[in-house]
């Protein structure tokens, strides 16, 4: 029985780790597109050759995207906490 729980928990943590990696990659790519000056200063390959958009509309869209990333991160954190306590 303990072996089954260990296998299950490893699978859950693996999924969470993969999901968090995917979320971070999505966030990083978005940041590099939204802030091309930063991408260029970091030496990111294929960085957009343009200046960032700092219009009110762009800033509002950025705020919405940040809320999206925050919600996804909270969901992952909550899933990790639930899976941790289910092992106890």
User: What is the beta-strand fraction?
Assistant: under 5%
Order of helices and strands: HHH
**What level of helicity do the residues show?**
over 70%
Mean pLDDT rating: 79
Largest sheet: none
- Please tell me what the overall shape is: flat
Number of helices: 3
Distance between the termini: 13 Å
Total discrete domains: 1
Number of strands: 0
Q: Helix/strand-derived class?
A: mainly alpha
Radius of gyration: 18 Å
List segments where confidence is low: pLDDT < 50 over at least 5 consecutive residues.
1-13
Give your account of this protein's structure.
- The structure is a single chain.
- The protein is mainly alpha-helical and 88 residues long.
- The chain has one domain (2-86).
- The chain has three helices and no strands.
- The protein has helices at residues 2-34, 36-42, 56-86.
- Helix 1 crosses helix 2 (36-42).
- The longest helix has 33 residues, at 2-34.
- The radius of gyration is 18 Å and the shape is flat.
- Residues 1-13 have low confidence and may be disordered.
């Amino acid at each position: 029985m303990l072996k089954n729980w260990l296998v299950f928990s490893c699978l859950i943590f693996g999924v969470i780790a993969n999901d968090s990696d995917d979320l971070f990659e999505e966030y990083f790519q978005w940041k590099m597109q939204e802030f091309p000056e930063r991408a260029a200063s970091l030496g990111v390959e294929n960085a957009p050759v343009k200046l960032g958009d700092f219009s009110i509309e762009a800033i509002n869209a950025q705020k919405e995207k940040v809320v999206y990333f925050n919600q996804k991160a909270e969901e992952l954190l909550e899933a990790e906490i639930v899976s941790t306590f289910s092992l106890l």
